[in-house]
Each structure stands twice: as structure tokens, then as C-alpha cells.
Prior knowledge:
With 200 residues, this protein is of the alpha/beta class. Helix content is 40%, strand content 20%. α5 (81-92) packs across α6 (114-122).
Amino acid sequence: MRLARVTYRVREVGREAAVERIHDGGLLLAWHCYLWILAINWAPSHYTALAGVSREGKIISRTLERLGWKVVRGSSTDAALTSLRTMVVLLRQGVRLVMTPDGPKGPPREIKPGAVFLQQQTGLPIIPVGIGTGWKYTFSHTWDKSEIPLPGTRIVVYYGEPITNLAGMKRSEAIRVVNQALDDANREAERIHKRRSLIP
């Protein structure tokens, strides 16, 4: 992963503004299929990753830690109230938490309620993060169609507008807002990537 990172050409759009907004804590959300890109682009990182408690989560956790990440194990699903309470405490302490809200098992690109709950409880911003890539290998047999960019690939990481207004919304409406923001961020990342790919 470290060797591949050296070959990538990464352009980050809106990162400075996003980092400033979550200086005192917040959430960065991206789809699970981009986990490889997120892991190496933000490593070593001042962010904290949420990794699941499953066998897959254990493997991901160990990999992230070796890349220099801080990792908290838990789940963001409704059944994991203890984990959610722990994350609320961490966020209020200023942690910047990275989540793939459609994990750990999908459906792909459909967020679970956990991120919405955390924003509503803490008032801290959610930053939707979109990814645009060129050459890549897609694991078509996995639930999320995980992507690994090939060496030399140009990658765009796009940081969308912060989401801070979920308090008072019904859960279903808040989920729709965040889902739409993530889809919009990915479309924008792909648009920027395509535009730059056309430049000689």
C-alpha cells in the first residue's frame, strides 16, 4: 500500500476548509469501496478510523494501525448503543472520526443511521468525501465492489460542504440528506477527475 501511494497522483479539493471545520471534532464520511484510497491518502493520519468488530474489521484495524492510524473498534448500527455512546464521547473530546457509513456489509452506498445519530447528538459537522479515479481494479465479487487504483493513477479526493443541520429532522429525512450529500461529492470528484484527465 505504501509503495502504491508513491505512484499515485492525488489532487485534494476543499481539504483545507474541511479540516478547519472539524478542527474541534467531526466526522468524515466516504463509501466503503474507497477504503484503500482513504487508508493510504490519510496515513499517517490525525484522524481516527472506526473499524468493525468482525474478522474483516480486525484485519482492517491492524492494517490501518500499521499505516499510522488511530483506530476505535465498534459498530455504528442501531444495535450497538454502547459503541455509539463511546463515539459521542470521543467526538466531544475533539476526535475527527472517519467512517464508511455503508459498512460493514452494505447495502452499498446506503448509509446506516449511526453517522446521523452522532451528528444529531454532538452538533459537530459531517464532511462528505467523494473519490474520482482513473485506472483501477474493481473486486466485482465483493458486496461493495471495492476499488484499488493501479500504479500511476490520477485520483481526486473531493471534500463536500459540511452537514450541520440534522438536529430536529426525522431519522429517515436526515439519512436521505447525508446519502445525497455523499452521492453529490462523488459525482463532483468524478467530474473534476474527468476534466483534468482531458488536460494534456
